[in-house]
């Protein structure tokens, strides 16, 4: 089933994703370039029409200002009076939820394949921390970081879905509502509908990283908001998170996640803190790499030929000539001896011929003498 909107053809038989407010389908433009089209039906959400329209308008306002390699870009948007169409960059690798399920099917026991999950967590962390840094320079809070909202394209991880995002200046304009966001990723401040800061995204990222490190296991659970808050408080009081992360080999991620999942915002790591720690880690890693290379070069020092002076060069050339002259003299001597042997053989042959002639002459002479005596 196809639908044409603007210069795009939407293929509604290929569903890329589905959310609380709409669905995402594959689309193509006139140049056959692929896009993702998010369709939000306002008619099917009559009860929250005004609220939903505000969220979508804010999402479009925010996305129109964004241009970062780790953030999904918006191409066009269109409203036909019933539905809102948002055409975005298409990501060919799906989302992190799909990725973690694929890993679980291949490596069902994360405990024995933790390096695979840690590698994924580190790659995601580098890219998402870059996207958050960019957002904060624009004074934007995402507020809905979770596996489903991290898309993958050609190995790059991109933050998407800005339906719940806000400019920092708008934080106090509206109270939090229970219909917004995914509770198990939300910070305690959002769950309690308290005043919050950009560090609410740091909490959500900590939950996401923990989930990746543990092969899809969420750090906190609850049937409702109160149960979830109780689980958070209990586990953090008993150092549950730190104990669960002891088996993580990547000590940087182990440390960062434990410091990101802190209830008190003042004590929770900020984005600036994260960037400082990451840069320190990268510098230390580069230094260690250089030291390892130097140590390897020292142990396996390559042979360097001694520099030859002009005197040594002449001596060396003389030695080479001497070495070369041995086979030459041998060949020359061999040739001379061969010629000499041939000459002697010839002489011997000549002497033999002479002796035979002399002998024949002598026989002939004797025969003539006998004939003359008879006469």
TrEMBL record:
GO cellular component: nucleus
Record keywords: ATP-binding, Kinase, Membrane, Nucleotide-binding, Serine/threonine-protein kinase, Transferase, Transmembrane, Transmembrane helix
Keyword Protein biosynthesis: no
A GO term for molecular function: ATP binding
Annotated residues for binding of ATP: 38
Chain ranges passing through the membrane: 352-371
InterPro entries assigned to the protein according to its UniProt record, in alphabetical order: Prot_kinase_dom, Protein_kinase_ATP_BS, Ser/Thr_kinase_AS
Start and end residues of each Protein kinase domain: 10-282
PANTHER family, per the entry: CELL CYCLE SERINE_THREONINE-PROTEIN KINASE CDC5_MSD2 (PTHR24345:SF0), SERINE/THREONINE-PROTEIN KINASE PLK (PTHR24345)
Similarity-based family: Belongs to the protein kinase superfamily.
Record-given protein name: Protein kinase domain-containing protein
Protein species of origin: Paramecium sonneborni
